[in-house]
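Researcher: Checking consistency across runs. Here is MauE/DoxX family redox-associated membrane protein again:
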Amino acid sequence: MLYVSLACRLALVAVMTLAAVSKLRSPGVFAASLEGFDFIPARLRSPLAVLVPVAELLIALLLAVPPTVTIGFVLATLFCCGLTAVPILVLVRGKTVKCACFGASEVPMSGWHVARNAVLLAAAGLGTLVALRLGDGVPAHAPGIALAVVAAGLLTTLIVFVDDIAALFESPVAVGDLGR
C-alpha cells in the first residue's frame, strides 16, 4: 500500500504545484474567474485569489517532506472536498463559469471538472488512509517506486489536461459551421 500512497502523493504534489504556479503566473486571470462564482461573497474573492495558490503550494510542500506527509494528505483531502464542491455548485446553479484551475481557459466547468476533482479527492483520501494506517514511510523497492512514479505521471497528465481530453469526446464542428 505504500506504493499506492507514493503514487497519490507524487500526483498531488505535481497537480497542486502546477495549479499554484499557473495561478501565480497570471493572478489576474484566476481572480477574474472567481467573479463567476456568485456563491462566493465578493469581499472574499480577492483574498481567495491569493489563498488558493498558497494553500496548493503548502499542501505540495507538506506532501514532499516525509515527516509531514500525513498532515499534507489530510489537508489535501479537505482542500479537494472544496475543489469538488465548486463545480458541483456551478452546475447545480446552471451557471457558465470558465475553469482557471490551470491557467486561462475558455472551457466552462462541466461534469468533467467534477470527475477530475473527485479523482483528486480519491487520491488524497486514499493517501490519508494509508498514511494514518502505515505512517509516512517510503517504499524501498525500485520497481515499485518506478511504477508509482509512472502511475503518478499518468494521473497528473490526465488531471491537468482534462479539458483537452473532454474535447476529444465532444461532437466535431463541421467545416461549414466554422464561419458562423
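Researcher: Does this match what you'd expect to see?
Model: One thing to look at in this run: The chain has a mean pLDDT of 87.
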